[in-house]
Amino acid sequence: MGVVRVIAFMLRAFLLSRGALVAENLALRQQLGVLQRSVRRPRLRQRDRVFWVWLSRFWTNWQSSLVIVKPATVVKWHRDGFRLYWRWKSRGRPGRPKIAAEIRSLIRRMSRENATWGAPRIHSELQLLGYTVAESTVAEYMCRHRKPPSQTWRTFLENHVSDIAAIDFFVVPTVRFQLLYCFIVLRHDRRRVVHLNVTAHPTARWTGQQIIEAFPYNEAPRFMIRDRDGIYGRDFRERVKHLDIKEVIIAYRSPWQSPYVERLIGSIRRECLDHLIVFNETHLIRILTAYFEYYHQSRTHLSLDRNAPIPREVELPSEGRVIAIPQVGGLHHRYTRAA
To answer: Is residue 187 classed exposed, middle or buried when 0-12, 13-18 and 19+ CB atoms within 10 A define those classes?
Structure first.
């Protein structure tokens, strides 16, 4: 009804004389003034809002005749209508397209594994991998670090492992109940035994000579881990000092502080010496030489990505049938493919 009345009012404005139109306009304004004084907030219907929105688009002087509501209210109605229009037009496909789960997982993985990387660096890596995403998307899915970024302990140790070696003695009884002392030098990077020797009477001078033989051509590590055995006397320490090696001495009764060499000695016993009877020094050296050949070239290690200290190539089924090569006198076997 309100719209009909407005249209009727506009038709009358064209038909009535100017004097009558001014008088009627004055009467209407006087009644609006009374209404404004008596009613604090008049009730408007939806069609009333549509009318004023429509009128504001086509009449530049619409604000001068607006009494019931403020002009800002009409502007708000127009914005609400604009929002409803675009909501209707965008139905069925709201928001941005979703990022693939693979990309989200990869962003979080890069963020966790590289604590010092920011969104630009990860974004560059994704581009090189063929993924097209925005840098803002990368920043949204990155892991949030509560503390300043820091490398993991594993990364820290792997960056220093090539400069670390460990030494130790272990005792082997012979068939005549004589005790033989085996001295080994282990490099931590690929778990390689770089030196082995056996003696029945170890001394500090003899042990120092073994270090010289283990690192002959400027191959000495930066650090060397050892226990507090009294065999490492003055002569041994002088030899180590001349090689510019820094000794790292573990605590009393704490073999866990030198885990790699202790694990190696345990493997030697479990996988070799516990199954044999040693006759003399020559026999023990021959046994350990055969074992370390197997240890370096064939035996797999979990910490070396399930490979040997001297890496083995992956042999595909198409390369032939599987054969077994006995090692360490048949205690162990290496499996390979025969062409």
So the answer is: buried
Please, what is the Cα angle at 127 between 124 and 133, to 5 degrees? 100
Query: Which backbone phi and psi does 289 adopt, to 5 degrees?
Result: -65, -45
**80-107 burial string, b = 16+ CB within 10 Å, else e?**
eeeeeeeeeeeeeeeeeeebeeebbebb
Q: What is the residue type of 179?
A: L
CA-closest candidate to residue 206, choices 180, 245, 232, 170: 232
Give the tokens for residue 314. 């992956």
Distances (CA, A) of 134 to 9, 95, 102, 129, 159: 57, 15, 15, 14, 33
Domain ranges of the chain: 1-40, 44-86, 101-148, 159-311
Q: Letter for the amino acid at 131?
A: Y
User: Which tens digit of pLDDT belongs to each residue from 212-237?
Assistant: 999 987 889 999 999 999 999 999 99
Q: Evaluate whether the domain defined by 159-311 bears CATH number 3.30.1330.10.
A: no
Amino acid sitting at position 205 = R
- At 246-255, the pLDDT tens digits run 999 999 989 9
Query: How far is Cα 76 from Cα 59, in angstroms, rounded to an integer?
Result: 17
Angle at 48 (CA atoms; ends 42, 51), nearest 5 degrees = 145
CB-based contact 113:129 (threshold 8 Å): no
Structure token digits, residue 247: 């000794």
Q: Which pair of tokens denotes residue 41? A: 């907030």
Q: Give the 3-state secondary structure of residue 258.
A: coil
Helices H / strands E in the chain, number of each: 12, 7
Q: Sort strands 246-249 and 223-226 into parallel, antiparallel or unpaired.
A: parallel
Cβ atoms < 10 Å from Cβ of 60: 8
